[in-house]
UniProtKB/TrEMBL annotation:
InterPro entries: FAD/NAD-bd_sf (IPR036188), FAD/NAD-binding_dom (IPR023753), NADH-Q_oxidoreductase (IPR051169)
Native source organism of the sequence: Savagea faecisuis
Cofactor list: FAD
Matching SUPFAM superfamilies: FAD/NAD(P)-binding domain
Domain FAD/NAD(P)-binding: 3-282
PANTHER family found in the cross-reference section: 64 KDA MITOCHONDRIAL NADH DEHYDROGENASE (EUROFUNG), APOPTOSIS-INDUCING FACTOR 1
EC code(s) of this entry: 1.6.5.-
Domain of life assignment: Bacteria
Keywords: FAD, Flavoprotein, Oxidoreductase
UniProt name for this protein: NAD(P)/FAD-dependent oxidoreductase
GO MF entry, a single one: oxidoreductase activity
Length: 355
């Protein structure tokens, strides 16, 4: 049997399984999926767990079942691309013929003193539960700082505002305006929502130190009762320790077939891959579709395509609480209730399609 090993049950590997586990899967292919949890988590919705507006049961999707698929619950500790095995935290080693690394990322603290020790996270479902417990336990009038005004920070701030109207919320943004890389109309809409709902957006911030009860922004000291860090990510440790070419941020450089050039039987999907777009669930799925095409060619001993299609994204969607939202699709800006319904519909369709 030929062994395909998938590391991580994230968006990329779930799409790979969705496309492979059908009547066209060669009978001599044995697939093993490794993840720390026995289900697929909708990472794009972790902010809602942390804010306490959605139980985590609503953002879990069951893993697929198939006679040629084996699931192994565990934590990846080491990847040996030379010897073609992966070691888990309990010492177990899994051999492979082809490997797809989809382990995702962890918070990037950018060497800010105290950030790792004194902030909370929404990078994993376990992190999000801990963050929820902390935020839930804060007394009324407490101040929550959210460092990073990307999509995760925006959605967490808005959802927390609706679930805990008694809290003071400060959202720290390094840029001069929210979502500065997108049309100003979009930025203005999100900022106006925050103004209307009494969320303090601190523009052009630079957090230089985090202490248990305060943030240092430039030379200003800001008292806080809890801080959630959403200011960037980096690949997880086993990927950072891989002896392969890396790009900015420690992401793995790939060839056009999504293979590691030094090891063409190793593929990287999702947040750990050096790609021309910012990491996202959508990007991981688009990339996964192409990896499936390449795998099928390799298994059939057919030549790979001379040129792979460009990775094209349709846009993005974000929520502002349960009733409003924003979207940028096909170079058009959509805001308000319609945008929120679009995101809710997309989430429903994804869960239905993968269940």
């Amino acid at each position: 049997m030929r062994k395909l090993l998938l590391l991580g049950a994230g968006y990329g590997n779930m799409r790979i399984l969705l496309r492979l586990l059908n009547k066209d899967l060669p009978e001599d292919i044995d697939i093993t999926l490794v993840d720390r949890t026995p289900f697929h988590s909708l990472k794009t919705e972790f902010y809602a767990i942390a804010a306490g507006t959605v139980p985590d049961s609503e953002i879990r999707v069951a893993l697929p079942e198939h006679p040629q698929l084996t699931f192994v619950e565990g934590e990846v500790s080491r990847i040996d691309a030379e010897q073609q095995f992966v070691e888990l935290g309990d010492g177990k080693k899994l051999q492979y013929d082809e490997l797809v690394i989809g382990l995702g990322c962890e918070d990037n603290y950018h060497d800010v003193p105290g950030a790792a020790e004194h902030t909370y996270s929404i990078q994993t479902i376990g992190d999000s539960r801990k963050t929820y417990q902390t935020l839930l336990g804060l007394p009324g009038g407490s101040t929550v700082g959210i460092v990073g005004a990307g999509l995760s920070g925006i959605e967490l701030a808005s959802e927390l505002r609706e679930s805990r109207p008694d809290l003071k919320i400060k959202l720290f943004d390094r840029g001069p305006r929210i979502l500065r890389d997108f049309p100003e109309r979009l930025s203005n809409y999100v900022k106006s929502w925050f103004d209307e709902h009494n969320v303090d957006v601190v523009a052009e911030s630079n957090i230089t130190k985090v202490e248990p009860t305060c943030l240092h922004n430039h030379k200003e000291t800001i008292p806080v009762d809890a801080v959630v860090w959403t200011a960037g990510v980096r690949p997880v440790l086993p990927v950072r320790e891989l002896d392969v070419e890396k790009a900015g941020g420690g992401r793995v450089v790939l060839n056009e077939y999504h293979q590691v050039p030094q090891h063409d039987n190793v593929y990287v999907v999702g947040d750990c891959a050096a790609l021309p777009h910012a990491p996202s669930a959508q990007l991981a799925e688009v990339q996964a579709e192409q990896i499936v095409t390449v795998l099928r060619k390799v298994w059939a001993n057919e030549p790979l395509p001379e040129k792979m299609p460009e990775l094209k994204l349709k846009g993005f969607m974000g929520s502002l609480g349960k009733k409003k939202g924003f979207a940028y699709v096909a170079d058009r800006t959509v805001t308000g209730r319609i945008a929120r319904l679009m995101k809710s519909g997309l989430l429903w369709f994804y869960k239905w399609h993968n269940n």
